[in-house]
Amino acid sequence: MYIVTAEDMYEIDRFAIDQGGIDGTILMENAGQAIAKEMMIAEEKSCHMAILVGSGNNGGDGFVIARYLKNEGYPVKVLQLVPNEKIKGDAAYHKQLLIHQKVPIQEVLTTDKLLECLVNVDIVIDAILGIGVTGEIREPLRGMISIINEQNARIYSVDIPSGLPANENHTIDIAIKADRTYIVEAPKQSLFLENTAPYYGEWKVIPIGIPIEAYGMIPKVRSWNLKDVKVSFPKRATFSHKGSHGKGLVIGGQELMPGSVALSSRAALKAGAGLVTVATMERNIPVIANYCMEAMYQNLSNFGHIDLAGFDGVAIGMGMGRNRTAKTFVEDVLAQEDVPVIIDADGLYHLKELLGMLQERRSPTILTPHYGEMAMLTNQEIETIKKAPFTMAKEFAQEHQVYLILKGKYTIITAPDGTQMVNATGNAGLAKGGTGDVLSGILLAFIMQHESVLEAMNNACFIHGMSADLRIESGQNTVIDLLASDVIDGLTNVFRTMS
């Protein structure tokens, strides 16, 4: 499933029409018909529906939806919120079809009139504004959106909630707060942003027959799904041995935070790593070994050096503290260029002063910041990162030639060449200390077993989130009591599901 900007979507539509030979009226028919069918599944015929149409393709979709719902016997009224001369092109064509079928279209141009028309309406179908919104909403539509949001009716939006920008890095003026959005063809960037995603409510993508070749015209940003995981996940050979599945090293854990590396090391082993060594403070070893007896252990010296020879992957930073000695370990690990390195937590704090070393590494470097850590690394405000996470992640990954996992409700995974993926698994139960340490452990196991670092990252994020989802769905946990250790234990069910 590709994720697009407004400009991308315009190019896709243009290709479908110009190169694919699909008339715009057909695309509009496909969209409206498919959404109408979804509405018929979701709502009873006793529901009184008001379809609110504006100019442009969204309004045209609304006319088609009205035609199909009316034909099926739904009590529908069509409220046109713009003057007649604003309805042009393909939308005008479908308006005429609706008129020929004797469906009345009421022109509603004031907020008072709209409020009057929404009395006793159970369902509002929002087909007012499309993906081209980028700033202030003009009156009277601005006031109309406010009135719609104040109604008790359920709100369904077509493609995007009216007033909401499709792209990142735009300010919201006012927008429809939908209960559900039927997204036409491809989800837009704003679906995956913390400040705009809630406006969509529940959502579903509706294909409308765009040829796959159309997506060759745009930058490739897509979501990673279970099918992708199953196709890319490495199979274990019958005669493999522990050395076949990677020798990993986990570095971290100051005396007051031994749990972090304990979680990472156990997660790595549970995710399939052949051998895991934990390098930590001597006093931590008995504590961690009691939780993860399958790992091996190495005492960290105070000299800031650890030999990485013989290891297939390294994860550093979890609970290691922010003193100068900890920084020397991060610097030393980065200087050893022939081993893939994952840097998380306190390791990212120390990395801030070592960014110049990243481009010099021959092996992959994987960073796993949350929004606060990303803000620290880029000298930006957290809100700036949240507003434009795709751009910020891509620019950072390309500049420093790193693989980047920007963690959030929707995690954005970026390769050094700018390729981006989005992971949508996971739930609010993961908003708890230790879950990031678990992800680092899973990631360590996977980068040692996958040929592609990007696929390893995608699969690690997906499976980490899927474990949390299955724990909730099965009733083993709720989003309140889910612990990082529960996510590790849940990996068994994930791998069973994949088999």
TrEMBL record:
<keyword id="KW-0067">ATP-binding</keyword>
<dbReference type="GO" id="GO:0046872">
    <property type="term" value="F:metal ion binding"/>
</dbReference>
<feature type="binding site">
    <location>
        <begin position="407"/>
        <end position="411"/>
    </location>
    <ligand>
        <name>AMP</name>
    </ligand>
</feature>
<keyword id="KW-0413">Isomerase</keyword>
<keyword id="KW-0456">Lyase</keyword>
<comment type="similarity">
    <text>Belongs to the NnrD/CARKD family.</text>
</comment>
<dbReference type="Pfam" id="PF01256">
    <property type="entry name" value="Carb_kinase"/>
</dbReference>
<keyword id="KW-0511">Multifunctional enzyme</keyword>
<keyword id="KW-0521">NADP</keyword>
<feature type="domain" description="YjeF N-terminal">
    <location>
        <begin position="9"/>
        <end position="216"/>
    </location>
</feature>
<feature type="binding site">
    <location>
        <position position="370"/>
    </location>
    <ligand>
        <name>(6S)-NADPHX</name>
    </ligand>
</feature>
<feature type="binding site">
    <location>
        <begin position="57"/>
        <end position="61"/>
    </location>
    <ligand>
        <name>(6S)-NADPHX</name>
    </ligand>
</feature>
<keyword id="KW-0547">Nucleotide-binding</keyword>
<feature type="binding site">
    <location>
        <position position="58"/>
    </location>
    <ligand>
        <name>K(+)</name>
    </ligand>
</feature>
<feature type="binding site">
    <location>
        <position position="436"/>
    </location>
    <ligand>
        <name>AMP</name>
    </ligand>
</feature>
<feature type="binding site">
    <location>
        <position position="159"/>
    </location>
    <ligand>
        <name>(6S)-NADPHX</name>
    </ligand>
</feature>
<protein>
    <recommendedName>
        <fullName>Bifunctional NAD(P)H-hydrate repair enzyme</fullName>
        <ecNumber>4.2.1.136</ecNumber>
        <ecNumber>5.1.99.6</ecNumber>
    </recommendedName>
</protein>
<keyword id="KW-0520">NAD</keyword>
<dbReference type="InterPro" id="IPR036652">
    <property type="entry name" value="YjeF_N_dom_sf"/>
</dbReference>
<dbReference type="Pfam" id="PF03853">
    <property type="entry name" value="YjeF_N"/>
</dbReference>
<dbReference type="GO" id="GO:0046496">
    <property type="term" value="P:nicotinamide nucleotide metabolic process"/>
</dbReference>
<dbReference type="InterPro" id="IPR004443">
    <property type="entry name" value="YjeF_N_dom"/>
</dbReference>
<dbReference type="GO" id="GO:0052856">
    <property type="term" value="F:NAD(P)HX epimerase activity"/>
</dbReference>
<dbReference type="InterPro" id="IPR000631">
    <property type="entry name" value="CARKD"/>
</dbReference>
<dbReference type="GO" id="GO:0110051">
    <property type="term" value="P:metabolite repair"/>
</dbReference>
<feature type="binding site">
    <location>
        <position position="126"/>
    </location>
    <ligand>
        <name>K(+)</name>
    </ligand>
</feature>
<dbReference type="InterPro" id="IPR017953">
    <property type="entry name" value="Carbohydrate_kinase_pred_CS"/>
</dbReference>
<keyword id="KW-0479">Metal-binding</keyword>
<comment type="similarity">
    <text>Belongs to the NnrE/AIBP family.</text>
</comment>
<feature type="domain" description="YjeF C-terminal">
    <location>
        <begin position="225"/>
        <end position="498"/>
    </location>
</feature>
<dbReference type="GO" id="GO:0052855">
    <property type="term" value="F:ADP-dependent NAD(P)H-hydrate dehydratase activity"/>
</dbReference>
<comment type="function">
    <text>Catalyzes the dehydration of the S-form of NAD(P)HX at the expense of ADP, which is converted to AMP. Together with NAD(P)HX epimerase, which catalyzes the epimerization of the S- and R-forms, the enzyme allows the repair of both epimers of NAD(P)HX, a damaged form of NAD(P)H that is a result of enzymatic or heat-dependent hydration.</text>
</comment>
<comment type="function">
    <text>Catalyzes the epimerization of the S- and R-forms of NAD(P)HX, a damaged form of NAD(P)H that is a result of enzymatic or heat-dependent hydration. This is a prerequisite for the S-specific NAD(P)H-hydrate dehydratase to allow the repair of both epimers of NAD(P)HX.</text>
</comment>
<feature type="binding site">
    <location>
        <position position="162"/>
    </location>
    <ligand>
        <name>K(+)</name>
    </ligand>
</feature>
<feature type="binding site">
    <location>
        <position position="437"/>
    </location>
    <ligand>
        <name>(6S)-NADPHX</name>
    </ligand>
</feature>
<feature type="binding site">
    <location>
        <begin position="130"/>
        <end position="136"/>
    </location>
    <ligand>
        <name>(6S)-NADPHX</name>
    </ligand>
</feature>
<dbReference type="InterPro" id="IPR029056">
    <property type="entry name" value="Ribokinase-like"/>
</dbReference>
<dbReference type="InterPro" id="IPR030677">
    <property type="entry name" value="Nnr"/>
</dbReference>
<comment type="subunit">
    <text>Homotetramer.</text>
</comment>
<keyword id="KW-0630">Potassium</keyword>
<dbReference type="GO" id="GO:0005524">
    <property type="term" value="F:ATP binding"/>
</dbReference>
<feature type="binding site">
    <location>
        <position position="319"/>
    </location>
    <ligand>
        <name>(6S)-NADPHX</name>
    </ligand>
</feature>
